[in-house]
C-alpha cells in the first residue's frame, strides 16, 4: 500500500511539470509572483508528502532494524524485530535477520554446551593420568607389579585421549562439506573391513548403483556405523541400497538402549563410557550427512534384530 502510494506520487511529478508548462504556454520566460505562489502551493505539499512517505516506508524502518540488530550483541535472548517494517522488502529483511539471529543463537548455545562436554571428557582421563603419575613419584619403593599396573592405566587413558582428539577432529571435518562425487559400495568394502575387522558384511538392493557421496564421505559414514556395531558386539552388518537414493544399515547386535534413543545422534552420548567410548561416532555420521544435504534416523530392522538406521542421501 505504501509502495503504491509512493509510486503514484512519483508518477505525478511529470504531470505537475506538464501543468507548469501549460500555465506558462505562450509567455516569455519567467512567471509572476501570483503564479509562483500557486505552483509553490501545489508542489510543496506533494514534495513534502513524498518525503514523509519515503521516511515512513524506508528510512525509519531501516533505522529501527539497524538499532535492533545492534541490540542483539548486548542481549542473551533474541528480542522480536520492530513492528511496522514499512515496505514488504523491509519486512522480508527483518524476518531474514531474525532467522539469522536465531541460527547464531542456537550455534552459540551448541558451542557452549560442546565446550563443557569436551572439558569434562578431557578432565577424567587427565585426572587419572596425573593421579597415577603422582603416586609413582611419591613412592620410589612401589612394588614393580603395582608400578606396572599404574603405567598400564596411564597408557590406557592416553589411548582414550587420543581417540577423543581423533573424533573431535573428525567431527570438525564432518561439519565442512567434502568435495562432491559419487561412489559405489563395492569401492569401500575394504575400508569397512579395516574399520570393523571380523564383522560380516552383506549388500542388497542395488549395491552397484553409484551413490551421491564422495568415497571419503561414504567411508566416514559407513565406517563409523560399522565400527559402532562391532564395538557393541555385532557380528553381521547388512547394507541395503534404496531408491530414492538412500541406505538401510542394520546389525545383529543388542540394539539401541531406550535411554539414549532420543539423543543418540548428539555429541558425547554413549553407553560405553567405561570402556573408552567417546560418544562422537554417530554425531560425526549425522554431521557428515547434513553437510552434504542428507540425514540419518533410527528405523526398524528388516532382516536383522539389532540397531537399524535409515540414511537419506542427497538427490
- Number of distinct helices: 7
- Structural class category: alpha+beta
Overall average pLDDT: 79
Instruction: Evaluate the radius of gyration.
Output: 34 Å
Major pleated sheet: 5 strands, mixed
Gap between N and C termini: 41 Å
CATH class of the largest domain: Alpha Beta
Instruction: Please report the total strand number as a whole number.
Output: 5
Low-pLDDT stretches:
none
Shape: elongated
Please state roughly what percent of the residues sit in beta strands, choosing from under 5%, 5-15%, 15-25%, 25-35%, 35-45% or over 45%: 5-15%
Assign the CATH architecture of the largest domain.
2-Layer Sandwich
The sequence of SSEs as H and E is HHHHHEHEEHEE
Question: What is the CATH third-level topology name of the largest domain?
Answer: Heat Shock Protein 90
Q: Which sequence of strands runs across the widest sheet? A: 1-2-3-5-4
Helical proportion? 55-70%
Count of discrete structural domains: 3
> What is the CATH superfamily of the largest domain?
Histidine kinase-like ATPase, C-terminal domain
Membrane topology: Multi-pass membrane protein
Organism: Elstera cyanobacteriorum
InterPro entries: 2C_sensor_his_kinase, HAMP_dom, HATPase_C_sf, HATPase_dom, His_kinase_dom, HisK_dim/P_dom, HisK_dim/P_sf, Sig_transdc_His_kin-like_C
Transmembrane segments: 36-54
In words, what does this structure look like?
It is a multi-pass membrane protein. Its EC number is 2.7.13.3. It is an enzyme of class 2 (transferase). This is histidine kinase. The chain crosses the membrane at residues 36-54. The radius of gyration is 34 Å and the shape is elongated. Strands 1-2-3-5-4 form a 5-stranded mixed sheet, with helices on one face. The model has no long low-confidence stretch (mean pLDDT 79). The two termini are 41 Å apart. Helix content is 57%, strand content 9%. Helix 1 (2-24) packs antiparallel against helix 2. The chain has 7 helices and 5 strands. It has helices at residues 2-24, 33-72, 88-138, 144-174, 189-195, 215-231, 281-291, and strands at residues 200-205, 236-242, 246-251, 295-298, 308-312. It folds into 3 domains: 2-86; 113-174, Signal transduction histidine kinase, dimerisation/phosphotransfer (DHp) domain (Helix Hairpins, Orthogonal Bundle); 185-312, Heat Shock Protein 90 (2-Layer Sandwich). The protein is an alpha+beta fold and 315 residues long.
